[in-house]
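Recall from the previous chapter that SMILES is a line notation for molecules. Here it describes flavin mononucleotide.
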Amino acid sequence: MSFSVTRNVSWVGKIDWELRKFHGEEYTTARGSSYNSYLVRGEKTVLVDTVWSPYDRAFVQDLERLVDLQKIDAVVVNHAEVDHSGALPELLSRIPDVPLYCSKNAVKSLTGYYHKDWNFQVVRTGDKFSLGNMDLVFIEAPMLHWPDSMFCYLTEANVLFSNDAFGQHYASEFMYDDLVDPCELFDEALKYYANILTPFSPSVRKKIDELKSMNVPLDLICPSHGVIWRSRPMNIVEKYEEWADDYQEDQITLLYDTMWNATRVMAEAIAEGIRAASPSTEVKLYNIARSDRTVMVTDVFRSKAVLVGSSTINNGILSSVAGILEEIRGMKFKQKKAAAFGSYGWSGESVKLITQRLREGGFEIVNDGFKLLWQPGEEGREQCRKWGREFVNSLG
Ligand SMILES: Cc1cc2nc3c(=O)[nH]c(=O)nc-3n(C[C@H](O)[C@H](O)[C@H](O)COP(=O)(O)O)c2cc1C
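With both inputs in hand, we obtain:
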């Protein structure tokens, strides 16, 4: 499949309707995704990125329908991750000497993946590839989201090829922001930022400042996943600025797991207490073992505070709780408050262990947590409501 984006730019990629898990099991992609590759034709012809390896042959066939492969003067590899570089071996088996323009770090990761002595041409920010009547200007973007990541900007057409930045895991035949459901698109763009880019928010802020200081016109942002931003491309750039600035809404998320429902009863009573003390605060509850991790991380991203609950099992915490704690630790969230709760039978280590993990994850711990013996009765539930009220009041 291919379509024309501008007079000089064609999309040639793969819409992956059936993708449901990405990065192994780490990211759920309920709406599928796409791998976007772009063919830029001026006086010279350049391919920007490729697609994931399962689709390499179909990709090269589609590309051949657009252009004689021998006429491709250069391939830009903005990012070495296999969902974008996966078709390189197939393509380069046909055009082995084609120069690959990439960052210095991409040479390491591409060699690490493919072990090939390809014709690497290392570029740095500000370097240009001239297509005769227009230039591709390279902009290194280290840690957005790998050390090798890079953007490139096409002059005259005013197109930013932003690779994973500004992407969304979203399959749609329509491929443009103004043609798809805006709520779905916003949901996917936010989920993508929360789960992929949050740890790199300081780099996002710097890169946006750098892009703005280039003071170049921007007509299109062409990411490597999901739809192209064309209606007002600065909208998503402004959203990224907002999200990168330790984003939070008036929301508190409770994440818990339970064996015999005691900790669930606690969570629900704590939520009642929060709602009673702060009716405007949105409270969301997730049983971790039954919920989608990507959605939970997105809700933690939106929250000003999180409460994590586990009963004590074998002097520890439930494994699902350990899993989500590890996931949110890696997100390096800032300016978020937290506390722990849980039911226990005799030794009751879970609350202390969760608190410790939340502290290591950069959360500001509001109190020592709240533990309750066995199944809460009415008195226990009232204690939970009180603890919920005190928690939300202490947030200020
Ligand atoms: C397999 C198992 C191991 C447990 N280990 C501990 C323990 O080491 N220390 C403790 O205080 N309670 C322990 N308990 C008791 C639970 O923490 C207690 O039943 C609690 O109320 C369960 O809460 P829940 O229904 O939210 O899971 C254990 C319970 C089970 C079923």
